[in-house]
Design goal:
Layout lengths: L2 H21 L6 H25 L1 H6 L1 H17 L3 H28 L5 H28 L4 H23 L3 H4 L2 H4 L1 H60 L1 H13 L3 H15 L11 H16 L3 E7 L8 H24 L5 E9 L2 E9 L5 E3 L2 E3 L7 H12 L3 E7 L2 E7 L1
Parallel strand pairs: 1-2
Antiparallel strand pairs: 2-3, 3-7, 4-5, 6-7
Helix pairs in contact: 1-5, 1-6, 2-4, 4-5, 5-6, 5-7, 7-10, 10-14, 11-12, 13-14, 14-15
């Protein structure tokens, strides 16, 4: 075996091991770097012993046992995972193919000469590894955080190529014999992988579209919630102003009466009363925003003849943004009203009970409302096929997840129960 050929074998070993390490999402410390360097040195040394002291053909034959298996073991130790280090090794092995093919192309263009392919592969090693590290390593490390099912899908092509290469080129001569079923296998794998990729991309696009629609709906809800709160506050400020200026109102009314302008006095009184009574903010708790929301919904619920009870102990200062709190409560109460109206259509009484309190910086909320007995759940979340419905539930879940809280939906005895802590 010539020195150049051995140097090429040495370089491809380093090429694959460096790429495998770069593809793994490992937080490199000095200790881990020493472990990786020691592992690489031991693997290369063992390869050299087999090549020179035993048999070069045997070394190629057992290459997976003396190189890929120990390399995967070292990466598993450093990465504290099993699946992705194996996929990284298989992918790095696949990435050796462009280096080999480019060398074959150059040899074919320049004419076959002794050791030319080894020389070209040696020259391509450093540029190829820098190129792959710069353009592929970061994306590979990102994929390592995907669910294991998606990792398996990604590792399918490298794994099939690995098995195909050893089964048809190293352990047998099926590829060189040119059997049609063998030569057409990798094109089949490429087409199958392309179709799977196409399906995954379209499915990801549909999921992205749904998420964008949900996001747009949440933004609309947020904007509407802010407007409603500001409108309620403006009315409340006007009401306070009217109460503060009550003496001036009384003097004006008295003047109208003294001048026998009774109808004008009546109209003025009606106008003041309508403005004062536009919104009566009931002090359910110390939190102003919660009072405004509960008061607004209490008026709506009263118009639908739905029994409504609130028990709330929420301070003014809570670690939840006002907008998020408004969207959460508004969606929960809106869903409760919708469910109660469906119950009332069947001639049955309906009621809504709200319990809310804050303890140790955590807000606890429970809403119990009447409902029909045909509610469907999927993964613990109520679902509906009615167009325009179901977004409120997703909004509630999104806000609770945003604050790292918990939610639970349940239904029993024609009562729907929502529990939230955040």
């Amino acid at each position: 075996m010539s020195i150049i050929h051995f140097a090429n074998l040495f370089s491809v070993g380093v090429f694959g091991m460096v790429l495998s390490a770069e593809f793994c999402d490992i937080r490199w410390t000095r200790r881990k770097q020493l472990i990786m360097a020691s592992g690489m040195a031991a693997i290369l040394m063992f390869q050299g012993i087999i090549y020179f002291a035993v048999d070069a053909d045997l070394a190629e034959y057992i290459y997976p046992l003396i190189t890929h298996l120990p390399l995967t073991s070292v990466l598993c130790l450093l990465n504290q995972r099993i699946l992705w280090p194996a996929i990284s090794v298989l992918t790095a092995y696949l990435c050796c193919q462009p280096r080999r093919w480019l060398a074959l192309l150059i040899v074919a263009l320049c004419g076959s000469r002794p050791l030319l392919q080894d020389v070209v592969e040696l020259l391509l090693t450093v540029p190829m590894i820098l190129f792959l590290i710069h353009f592929s390593a970061r994306q590979m490390r990102t994929l390592s955080h995907y669910p294991w099912q998606e990792q398996c899908q990604f590792g399918m092509v490298p794994a099939l190529y690995y098995c195909f290469d050893y089964a048809t080129r190293v352990y047998t001569n099926l590829l060189l014999d040119g059997r049609l079923v063998v030569t057409e296998f990798m094109p089949f794998v490429c087409s199958a992988a392309y179709l799977i990729f196409l399906y995954q991309t379209s499915e990801a696009g549909r999921i992205r579209d749904r998420l964008e629609q949900t996001r747009d709906s949440l933004n609309l809800q947020m904007t509407q919630a802010v407007r409603e709160i500001e409108a309620l506050r403006e009315i409340q400020r006007n009401t306070r102003a009217h109460r503060h200026d009550m003496r001036h109102h009384m003097l004006y009314i008295l003047t109208c009466i003294e001048n026998e302008k009774n109808e004008q006095a009546r109209d003025y009184i009606r106008g003041i009363c309508s403005e004062i009574d536009a919104v009566i903010v009931v002090p359910f708790c110390k939190n102003e925003s919660v009072n405004l929301i509960f008061s607004a919904f209490a008026d709506r619920i009263k118009t639908h003849d739905i029994e409504f009870h609130i028990s709330a102990e929420i301070p003014q200062m809570i670690p939840i943004a006002e907008n998020d709190l408004c969207v959460l409560l508004s969606n929960a109460l809106e869903n409760a009203i919708h469910a109660c109206l469906l119950v009332k259509k069947n001639g049955l009484p309906a009621k809504i009970e709200v319990s809310a309190y804050e303890s140790a910086g955590i807000l606890f909320l429970q809403i119990v409302n009447s409902c029909r007995d045909d509610i469907l759940f999927r993964h613990g979340i109520p679902v509906t096929n009615d167009p325009g419905h179901g977004i409120g539930v997703h909004s509630i879940c999104a806000i609770v997840k945003q604050y790292g809280g918990m939610y639970a939906f349940s239904a029993r005895d024609r009562q729907f129960i929502l529990r939230v802590s955040l």
